[in-house]
Amino acid sequence: MAWKNRRNLTGVSLCTALLAVGVASCGGDPSKTVDAPIVLGNGKSVILISIDSLRADFTTPYGHTPIFAPEEETTPFLAKLAKEGVLFEHTSAAAPWTLPSHVSMLSGMNPVEHGIRSRKYAIHEDIDLISNVFQNAGYKTGGFFTAPFLHPSWGFGRGFDVYIPSADYLGTIEAGAALAAHGKSELVEEIHASSHTDNRTGEQAIDHAVQWLEHDKTYEEPFFLFVHLWDPHYDYFPPEEYRKQFLPNDDGSVKGDELMLPDREPSAQELEVLKALYEAEIRYTDDQIKRLYEQLEAWGLADDVVFAVVSDHGDEFMEHGNRGHHLTLKEEVMNVPMIIHAPGLIDGNQRVQASVSITDISPTLIDLAELPAWTDRTGQSLRPLWEDEDTDREVAMDLLRPTKKIQLLGYRYGMKKGILNVPQRRVRVFDLEMDPGELNSPEPFLMNSDNPFVVATINFHTRMLEFSHDVENVSETPAMKESLNALGYTDDVSNDDEDDEK
Question: pTM here?
Answer without folding.
Answer: 0.87
